[in-house]
Structure formats: structure tokens, C-alpha cells
């Protein structure tokens, strides 16, 4: 079985992995990040159920119907993607989060219950990103490694890229923790309507900032080592060495 972070072929001579990033590399990095985090459509699908919940609750103060409406639109977004045969990974993650929030809101009878699971999850992510960066095993590298076809090769074969993942993971962690340092006091002492609108307002800007820092760090890092291409080249070389079957 091929290792995810060990060489599959001998390293070529020369500064292949230390080369300065090109404009093409920056464009590839931008496109990969755009796809990994859902793009504009994924962002809209993530925000829409929560926005609908807070809008309905602001108007009628009815937790039940606000929660049902948010859950229904989340499910509808998944159905639309399925009908269009689009990728559903972002939509499914959104509907799961909304579903847990709806369950909490209906169980507690409090609009704040709709927001609590997502807030706890966000704090957990902030801690995970921060700790992973501090221990030298950045979570963002684990998430994005397959996207760039490098898997975990950055751990042992591409130190410049590992450094970039550490910086980016730390940025994500600190941004998440700062966001929820603002939101949790509102959860404890503010009313549900205030909390909902502030949460909506803080939904996109911190994410955009974190993705921007990620792009800056990775665009300046050495290019990823395509371990998939290496594996395919090794397989082709072994097949050629064996020669044609009799």
C-alpha cells in the first residue's frame, strides 16, 4: 500500500519543491480553495436557513415555525442539488447542522437553542485548528492535502508547505475563537433576536478572512507534491519493466 507521506519515487535533483510560486500556482490554489470551501453557492446554502430562521423569529417570535422553515429550506437545497446531480457534500453538512439546531430549538422552546450547537461546533473547530497548528500537525493540511493531490506528503517532504499550513491553521483557529468570543456573551446576556442578527452578520466576513489568509500563505509556499501522479508513474514504470505478457 502506498504511503501518504513517503516518497514513492526517488526525488529528482534540483530545486523542484523550492521554486518560487508562479501565477499559475496562485490561480490553482485559489480555485482549489474556492472548491474546497463551497464557493459562492455553498456559502449561500450555508447562510440561507439561519437567515430565514432569524427573519421569521424577528417578525412573529414563534420558535416552532421559524425552526420548521429553516429545516425545510435546508432540505430543499439538498433536493435541488440532487436533482441537478451536483455535489451535495456542502449541502448535506449544512442540513445536518440546521437539523441539530432545529432539534435544540424545538426541544428547549428557545430561539437561542437553534444557534447553540453551531456555536459549540465553531468553538471546537477554533480550538482544533489552533492546537493542531501548535503541535505541528495542522488540520488545514489534513483537509486540503487531498484537494491538492499531495495527501500528507507536506509533513515530511515539503517543509515550506507544512509551515504554510501551520500559519493558515493558526489563522483559522484565532479567527474562529475571536468570533465566538463576541457571540457567547450575546448568547448569555443578549436576546435571541440580537444574537441571530449578529451571528448572521459574522457568518461570512470571518470565513472570507480565513480563506484569504490561507490563499496568501499557500500561494507563497512551494508547490504541492502530486503523490497521485508519482504513484501512477511508478505503476507505469513497473509495468514497463515487466514487459509485455507472453
UniProtKB/TrEMBL annotation:
Instruction: Say which domain of life the source belongs to.
Output: Bacteria
> Membrane: is it a keyword of this entry?
yes
* UniProt keyword Transmembrane helix present: yes
**Pfam families, per this entry?**
DUF3159
Swiss-Prot/TrEMBL keywords: Membrane, Transmembrane, Transmembrane helix
Ranges for region Disordered:
1-23
Q: Where are the transmembrane segments?
A: 65-83, 90-107, 119-148, 169-189, 195-218
**InterPro entries given for it?**
UCP010219
Question: What protein am I looking at?
Answer: Intracellular septation protein A
Give the organism's phylogenetic lineage.
Bacteria, Bacillati, Actinomycetota, Actinomycetes, Kitasatosporales
Amino acid at each position: 500500500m502506498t504511503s501518504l507521506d513517503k516518497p514513492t519515487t526517488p526525488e529528482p535533483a534540483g530545486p523542484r519543491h523550492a521554486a518560487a510560486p508562479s501565477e499559475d500556482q496562485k490561480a490553482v490554489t485559489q480555485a482549489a480553495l474556492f472548491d474546497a470551501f463551497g464557493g459562492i453557492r455553498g456559502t449561500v446554502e450555508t447562510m440561507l436557513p439561519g437567515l430565514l430562521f432569524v427573519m421569521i423569529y424577528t417578525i412573529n417570535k414563534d420558535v416552532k415555525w421559524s425552526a420548521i422553515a429553516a429545516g425545510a429550506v435546508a432540505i430543499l437545497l439538498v433536493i435541488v442539488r440532487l436533482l441537478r446531480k451536483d455535489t451535495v457534500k456542502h449541502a448535506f453538512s449544512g442540513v445536518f447542522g440546521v437539523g441539530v439546531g432545529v432539534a435544540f430549538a424545538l426541544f428547549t422552546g428557545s430561539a437561542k437553542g437553534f444557534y447553540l450547537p453551531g456555536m459549540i461546533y465553531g468553538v471546537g473547530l477554533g480550538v482544533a485548528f489552533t492546537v493542531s497548528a501548535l503541535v505541528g500537525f495542522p488540520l488545514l493540511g489534513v483537509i486540503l492535502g487531498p484537494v491538492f493531490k499531495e495527501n500528507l506528503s507536506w509533513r515530511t517532504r515539503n517543509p515550506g508547505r507544512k509551515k504554510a499550513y501551520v500559519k493558515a491553521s493558526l489563522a483559522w483557529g484565532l479567527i474562529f475563537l475571536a468570533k465566538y468570543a463576541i457571540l457567547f456573551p450575546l448568547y448569555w446576556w443578549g436576546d435571541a433576536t440580537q444574537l441571530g442578527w449578529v451571528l448572521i452578520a459574522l457568518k461570512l466576513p470571518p470565513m472570507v478572512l480565513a480563506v484569504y489568509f490561507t490563499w496568501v500563505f499557500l500561494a507563497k509556499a512551494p508547490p504541492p507534491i502530486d503523490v497521485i501522479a508519482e504513484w501512477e508513474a511508478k505503476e507505469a514504470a513497473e509495468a514497463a519493466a515487466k514487459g509485455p505478457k507472453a
